[in-house]
Structure formats: C-alpha cells, structure tokens
Design a protein that fits this description.
By secondary structure, this protein is α/β, with parallel strands linked by helices. The chain has a 9-stranded mixed β-sheet with strand order 1-9-8-7-6-5-2-3-4, sandwiched between helices. β6, α5 and β7 form a beta-alpha-beta unit. α1 packs parallel to α6, α8 runs antiparallel to α13 and α9 packs antiparallel against α10. The structure holds nicotinamide-adenine-dinucleotide (NAD) and magnesium ion.
Length: 333
C-alpha cells in the first residue's frame, strides 16, 4: 500500500510563499494557501493579463523576480514549456539562500531542464485535478488528492515542507500520496499519451470512422462511440469494472468480454511498452524540448493532422452537443 499522508504542519510555512503564475494551478494554490493563513505573493511577468484577477481576489502581485526575492518557498506554476526560461531568467538569480522550490509536475526537473543549486529543497505537490477543481473543492470544505515528492532535500525537512504545502492547498483533506519525481513524471506522460488523451480518443475515433465508413449515419456513430463513453466512464469511476459490467446488459457484457481483448490485443500492449520505454529513456522529452526550442514546427503539424483526422466527428459532435445544450458547458482542465 502506498504511503498516504493527511497531515502536515502549516506552521512550517511561516515565511512568504511566492506563487509564480496565476493560471489553472497557480490561482488555486495561491488562493487556497492564502485562505489557509499563509502569506502569499503572486509573481507575474510585466503586463500579465492575470494581474487584475489576482488583485481582485485580494492577493498581492509583484513581478516574478521581485516576488521570488525574499520568499521562503517558490511555487513554479507557469506552463511546463516555459518553466526553464522563466527559471533561468527570473527565478534562479533571485532565489533566497535556502529557499525551497515546489513544482506541480516533475517534467523539467526530472529530465534535467531545471537544475536548482544544491542548497535548495526541491519538492513536488501535484494535485490530481485541474486547478478550478482544486479551488472549488477547497472552498466547499473538501479537497483533491495530491502527490508529494522530494527531488532534493537540502534542509532535512523537504518532505515536511511538501506536506505543509499540500495541507495548505487542501490536498491533506483527501490524502497526499508519496511518490518520486520519476514516477510522477513518467506515469503522467504515459497515462496522457497511451490512455487518457491519446489512446481513448483515438479508439473512439477509430470506432466512429469504422461505422461511418460502413454506411451508418455519423450521428448514430457519434452517440454510440463518443457520447455514451461518458456513461461507461462514470460507472467505472463509481464502482470499477464489476459495477460497470453489472450495470450494462448481459449482451453488452458478453460482447465486452469476448471482443475487448481482441481490439486491445498484445500488439497494443507491446506498443504501450515501447511508448513507456521512450518516455523513461528521455527520448520523448528530448523530442518535445527540441520542437519547443525550434518554435514548435512539429507540434503545429501534429495539430493540423489531428484536426484533419477529426473533422467529421467534430462537425457532427458540435451539432449534437448544441442540440443537447451541452456545448461549451463542460470546462476542460
Ligand atoms: P497554465 O497554462 O494554466 O498557467 C499559466 C500561467 O503562467 C498564467 O498565469 C500565465 O500568465 C503564466 N505564464 C504563461 N506563460 C508565461 C511566460 N512565458 N512567462 C511567465 N509567465 C507565463 O498552467 P497550469 O496548467 O496551471 O500548469 C502549471 C503547472 O501545473 C505545470 O507544471 C503543470 O504540469 C502542472 N499541473 C497542471 C494541472 C492542470 O490541471 N492544469 C494539473 C496538475 C499539474
Ligand atoms: Mg496528468
């Protein structure tokens, strides 16, 4: 069983916490910490569009370098692809001696794009939810589960500091699961690529395309392969495989058990292992960072290809979601 913490000593956060970035995670961390009684300053670049939102929420805002100076702990909550640049330019040169650094995802640290000096605690507190949920649940008196990890323990109390921070943003109310930067980063990349954002949507589209190609109405294919997915996922989320199989018809269950392993066969599993190996070796990160450095030419091509492949399912989906009144209602984290 994993080690799950529910407590942390908020008194360890007795200095100022600089939250750099006021996006999805940044706004939630800053506001939750503030409401937990921690002294928070938000660090934003000059001219940032988020300044007004942060100030309206009652937070103190400074330019990043200024916020970092004098902070006991600096939370790096700008998007992953700009973190290295912001780190080099605004954070590292201004970090107080002995200040701790917290990340919400291990990508840059684990793959060596950000290498903090030896004197700093380097920790991770990663809520397993989009930022707006982290805020919403905190306000409602609940919390989101989170991961905690220590990359560098300069002070001997890095884990305790991570737990304090985790409690401050409300994750302690559910649980802070101990992990490592490697485990969080690699499993996160694998999950989003092979299952959540890559695998499942690709499976949905392949099913949709198969039906349409065979002459079925695209609207029928959409309802069957995409719309109903939510119902199945809700059942899995609520009660696991057994509950899902209990809830669907016997015919659906028979087909599921007979055909599922034929679709997601050993070939798929083998390619999942290959994808995982590329993540672990750093090959994926190297490709990603190189594309970023070149101005993202490959990303632009992939986006265009993805949009072209999904043209029909997107067109039909837009119409049907508008009919159902759900278009645009569901925030995406
Ligand atoms: P985001 O895109 O929502 O946040 C952007 C923030 O960074 C904004 O305040 C913006 O003003 C600032 N910013 C953007 N570009 C900048 C630049 N060039 N220089 C300075 N500031 C800039 O980011 P996010 O999704 O909250 O991600 C922050 C971290 O949290 C990442 O490490 C991410 O992996 C992690 N994380 C995100 C989620 C999530 O649900 N979004 C969940 C868990 C972990
Ligand atoms: Mg993830």
């Amino acid at each position: 069983m994993a080690t799950i913490h529910r407590n942390g000593d908020l008194d360890l956060l007795d200095g100022t916490v600089a939250v750099v970035g006021f996006g999805s995670q940044g706004h939630a961390h800053a506001l939750n910490l503030h409401d937990s009684g921690v002294d928070v300053v938000v660090g934003l670049r000059a001219g940032s569009g988020s300044r007004a939102a942060a100030e309206d929420a009652g937070l103190e805002v400074r330019e990043i370098a200024d916020a970092v100076r004098g902070a006991q702990l600096v939370a790096v909550l700008v998007p992953d692809h700009v973190q290295a640049e912001v780190w080099e330019r605004d954070i590292a040169p201004n970090l107080a001696p002995g200040a701790a650094v917290v990340f919400a995802h291990g990508l840059n640290v684990h793959f060596g794009r950000i290498v903090p000096d030896a004197g700093h605690d380097v920790i991770m507190v990663a809520p397993k939810a989009p930022g707006h949920r982290v805020r919403e649940l905190y306000v409602g008196g609940a919390g989101t589960p989170g991961l905690v990890a220590v990359h560098q323990d300069a002070t001997g109390r890095a884990l305790a500091l991570a737990l304090a921070y985790g409690v401050g943003i409300g994750c302690g109310r559910v649980g802070l699961l101990e992990t490592t930067f490697a485990e969080e980063t690699e499993s996160d990349l694998f999950g989003e690529q092979a299952v959540l954002c890559g695998g499942v949507p690709a499976l949905v589209q392949a099913g949709f395309d198969t039906l349409v190609e065979a002459g079925y109405q695209p609207e029928i294919a959409y309802y069957e392969c995409l719309n109903e997915l939510k119902l199945i996922v809700d059942l899995l989320y609520q009660g696991g495989y057994e509950y899902m199989r209990y809830s669907v018809s016997d015919v659906a269950e028979y087909g599921d058990l007979l055909v599922g392993p034929r679709i997601v066969d050993d070939g798929v599993r083998q390619r999942m292992r290959e994808v995982l190996a590329e993540i672990r070796s750093g090959a994926f990160a190297e490709t990603l960072f190189a594309d970023d450095a070149a101005g993202r030419p490959s990303f632009a091509r992939l986006r265009a290809d993805g949009a072209a492949r999904a043209e029909e399912i997107e067109r039909v989906g837009k119409e049907l979601r508008t009919l159902a009144g759900v278009e645009g209602l569901l925030g995406v984290g």
